[in-house]
Amino acid sequence: MSAAIAEPTRIAGLRRLNAFAANAGARYAKSRNFDFGPERRGNVSVLSPYVRHRLVLEEELLETALGRHDLAAAGKFVEEVFWRAYFKGWLEHRPRVWQDYRKDVSRLVRDLESDSGLLERYTKAIEGNTGIDCFDAWVEELVSTGYLHNHARMWFASIWVYTLDLPWQLGADFFYRHLVDADPASNTLSWRWVCGLHTQGKTYLARASNIANFTDNRFNPDGQLAASAPPLVDSRVYPLGQLPGEQTLPQGERFGLLITEEDGCPESLLDGQMPVTILGALATRMRSPLPVGARAREFARGALADAVDRTTRSLAVNGELSDSASWPDLLVRWARQHELSAIVTAYAPVGPVAEVLAQAAERLDRLGIRLLQPRRPYDSTSWRYAQRGYFKLKQRIPAILDELAIPGNSLTPEH
């Protein structure tokens, strides 16, 4: 893996956070949009892989940044942390967006077999053979490292849709298969935002001058990019739904702790209660009907292995790691083996883990075994303000910090 991404462990994530903390204020705000290349990432935190798998928690990012800077100075960094919460909460309120995206990807993968023109454009794009130097370089960087700068992701998505004339869903799937920080909500909704589906009518156009400026003149695709970015149209309507209810831990029951790639710090959810066994289960292969990239697989497996190892040692409980493709069979077998009356796992937001847990819950329920998913207060608090646009959540950041007892000075919202 490139120098930009260290090993997938909590200790590596905390070291990166502590090393970056001094730069989380004005320096980050000034330089964060520049993509200087994979070997020059000092202007951004590169913490997203650790936060994605919750090897490092969002509260820890906020506490560390606000321990070094006041909220006015660290405002941009804090807002980036809450953008992730916003996207996850927005999708929790509209899970059908994810379900339709998954169906679209499956349909488009089948279309690749019958539409030669689509297949040719798609193949050139994912192999980095478009002739657009910056785009082809980003393909190579993505596949080989599992990471792209956030600004490059926006340029990439815009070029994919508007210059290469490819379906956004296949682009989102390409990212989701290769990014080590691939998150169902942030990835899907960012691609929808670029093409005018998330914020209706608002699109993002990649411009050669902007790319040249913010890549420090490493690239300048003058004359190669689309001149306009008309919003895409989708007639499907997604009404606002309700968040699932909160669940509490079993009292005095024999339960097992299930660790998934959604949350690598599950011990903090147990409130002092002790499981009798621990299981780590991988769902990385379920991201797509197409093969998942090596870097994404390696990081997810490493993150889960680290979480299982830390938790088993901390709680002095036996644990194991599984890559089974059938979670219902896996969890039923595990529960029976250890005579469990309940399985506890961190709440899984909309995505593949939530899908397979829902399938397993039906089987477990028929056997009288409860599947409980306690949700972190950070999620429950911030998701309440993620029903529509980001600005409502942004306005509430000081209040959310107070509610979560995270110290920080007031930040005057922009108008």
SSE topology:
Layout: H1 10-20, H2 26-31, H3 48-52, H4 58-68, H5 75-93, H6 95-114, H7 116-126, H8 133-145, H9 150-163, H10 168-178, H11 184-194, H12 208-214, E1 255-259, E2 277-281, H13 294-315, E3 319-322, H14 327-337, E4 342-345, H15 352-366, E5 370-372, H16 377-383, H17 390-395, H18 397-403
Parallel strand pairs: 1-2, 1-4, 2-3, 4-5
Helix pairs in contact: 5-11, 6-7, 10-11, 14-15
How many helices? The count is 18
Mean pLDDT: 95
Pick out the low-confidence regions. Answer: 409-415
Following the backbone from N to C, one meets helices and strands in this order, namely HHHHHHHHHHHHEEHEHEHEHHH
Report the helical percentage. 40-55%
| Euclidean distance between termini CA atoms | 42 Å
Binned strand content? 5-15%
What's the number of extended β-strand segments?
A: 5
Rough outline: globular
Query: What kind of sheet is the major sheet?
Result: 5 strands, parallel
Q: Which class best fits the helix and strand makeup?
A: mainly alpha
Radius of gyration over all CA atoms, rounded: 21 Å
Within the largest sheet, what's the order of strands?
3-2-1-4-5
